[in-house]
Hints:
The relative contact order is 0.12. The chain has 194 residues and is mainly beta. The strands form four sheets. The protein has an eight-stranded mixed beta sheet, with no helix packed on it. It is globular and about 55 Å long. The protein is 4% helix and 33% strand.
Amino acid sequence: MASIDYIEFLGENNRPRLKYCGEHVILNAMCKIMRAENMEIDDYSRILDFAYIDAGKLLRIGKYSIITWHCLIEGGAQCFIGDRVFIGPGTKLLTSTYKFNGYYTNEFLPEETRATLYGDITLCDDAYIGANSVIMPGVTIGEGALVGSNAFVNKDLDPWGIYVGSPAKKIGERQKPTDERRAIIESMDWTKHF
């Protein structure tokens, strides 16, 4: 049988357990994190109520990113979330899934009867993930890519593309922020950055 060797904490109770916690990070009272010792979160990022996070091997969240209500980050692999990333309500980032052909799919059965597939997930800077999307193991979402609500993402997405559907398909290109808006961002403090 699988052994459970981790503890879950809510909200601010996680702060001293985090591997790294930047300045002005907000951990809402009802966010739940397990394996917080494997989590790094940079300045000005937020995790809202009812997010459930398993930091797996490593979870790194860049500056000014937000994980909104009822999100799930799950699995035993690594997850990298860049700067200024928005993860919409109900989204699921799955860094593991079961092998199902020829195996049982229940973690409480003997280990030799089941098998798990792991894959790191990367959400590059400025990615936008719409509500209720599912991101599968091994996926990289390129810089500035936009994933529409309820999308199922099982392959890498190009930078600044717009993707919708199940499975997600590219339907267009997202316009990059203007030079004036980029200048504002570049003038901000990016020291002590991952």
